[in-house]
Amino acid sequence: MLFSGILFKRSMSGIGMNETMQDMKQHRTGIRSWSRVLQKAVIGVSMLGVLALAPGCGKSIPVIEPALLEKKASLLVVTGPALAEADKASLQTALTQWQNTKHLSYEWVQNADSSATWTPDLIAKTGSRNYDYIVVAGHDLARSALTAAQQVTQRKWLLLDDGLTRDTVQVSGDHIQMKMVQDAEFRALWDPWVKEQTKAGRTIEWVTTSAYPVPGEWAPSEEAEYISLSDAEGWYGQFQHQVRRHGPDWIAVYAPMDSAAVQRMRSLQIPVMNMGGTTVQLQWNGILTLLQGAIDGQAWTPGIQPYTESEARIVKN
Q: Is residue 126 part of a domain?
């Protein structure tokens, strides 16, 4: 009986201990549950505070701060029908990228006719809209825009001449910048080739127009008979005669000429170097970087300016 009593007490003691352990586990579980509830409550209160402070928090689109809107630049781009499809794609990519990353807003007028684009209505539009900059690309368009730019002085105008006419242009007004390849730059581009031919003793038959005299250092006056003017009446017959008589190593075309005339010269079976066919390929990311610099407060330099390597690439044809 004594032994049975001892077993009974131990058994009851084990049950008590088990119950005590279970109670402790439940207590700890309860504490952890309340801890989670309290954490969620704190987060919820914090979120309510943020939402209460954020204006327009019910909208899915973030509200742009007024200060950011103030910095958003507006751009009008005007291009002509001569802009190649590859250049259009490059421009569209650059504009979209800058719209997304630099908060740039823009309007793009494509296939503009240089002889009809700058109507009084469009000139009035450029003055009334809040454009920060007006960019005009193309040789004829840039030249025709000069008159409009001189009338709309409250906007900055960036005129991109992608031709190589190398003539003199008058640009007046602190709000106008014209980018172009000037005659000195064109000569520096081709001077190494001319010197290479001269050093090697190779003769050059020059073709140009009266508006584009060949530099004296390339064709001295004593070699005038080696120069033909394509705007002279009946010039091609005389040119053919000179080519047969001189037997030159090269025909060099100095003035801009149409492709049919150049192809006609190639039929003489003498190598043709078409200097006048040199082209300018605009690099739109570099051009927009120039504008962004001006928007950010960097110096705006008016007048005729050369292209930088990042703004244009000069391609020999």
A: yes
Q: What is the pTM of this model?
A: 0.69
> What kind and span of H or E run contains 123?
helix 120-128
What residues make up the domain containing 41? 1-63
Q: Is residue 68 included in any domain, yes or no?
A: no
- Residue 31 carries which side chain, given as an amino acid letter? I
Q: Are residues 150 and 58 in the same domain?
A: no
167 with 268, same domain?
Answer: no
Are 284 and 274 contained in the same domain?
Answer: no
Segment 22-68, tens digit of pLDDT: 444 444 444 444 444 334 433 333 333 333 333 333 333 334 344 44
Task: Give long-range contacts, CB 8 A cutoff, 24+ apart: 32-38.
Answer: none
> Under the phi-then-psi rule, with left for phi > 0, alpha for psi from -120 to 50, and beta for the rest, what region is 132?
alpha
Report the pLDDT value the prediction gives residue 71, as an integer from 0 to 100.
54
Which residues are CB-contacts of 174 (< 8 A; sequence separation ≥ 6)?
Answer: 300, 302
